[in-house]
Write a structure and sequence with these properties.
This protein has one helix at 2-24, and strands at residues 36-47, 50-62, 69-74, 88-90, 95-99, 108-117, 124-133, 146-152, 158-159. The strands form two sheets. A five-stranded antiparallel sheet has the order 4-5-3-7-8, with no helix packed on it. With 160 residues, it is mainly beta. It folds into two domains: 1-30; 36-159, Immunoglobulin-like (Sandwich). The protein is 14% helix and 42% strand. The chain is elongated, with a radius of gyration of 22 Å. It starts with a helix and ends with a strand. The chain is built from one helix and nine strands; from the N terminus they run αβββββββββ.
Length: 160
Amino acid sequence: MRGLRKGVFGVALAATVVMGAGARAGAVEPVFGPEADLAHHGHVSLWGGRVGVWLVSENHGPSDLAEATVRLAFSEPMAGGQVLPEACLWSSDRVVSCRTGELPAVGGVGELVLDLRTAGLPDELTVDITTVWRDGATDRNPGNDRHLVLVLATGDPYVF
């Protein structure tokens, strides 16, 4: 029994050393399922109680995506009764969620344009733009699909 414990301990120790060495050497963790690198870019403007959002979603691959969902969360409430594009819905008075549509690997592009009214006349607001669903795909570079944009009520485009 004692020899068996030493053998098991030795195998566990060897596995730890090999795994530790691999991690230090920059080894990449295995990915299960498809992998897609989503990126969102565009600009947001605020003027006279109106918010304009121009958003482009891209898939840098390597796998195709049937669809993804991007959420735009505003720091100020939007006016009620506004109609959104067919691919979008209101999650609350401050949050809009939109489907990107199909995004083929390496170059698939989805475009979104929103023209919204705020509930008041804010001098500024923030927009948190993030992917909330990517059809089960892994994204090893999630930094390019999340942006927090401060927008002043100047009418200028604030690029992300």
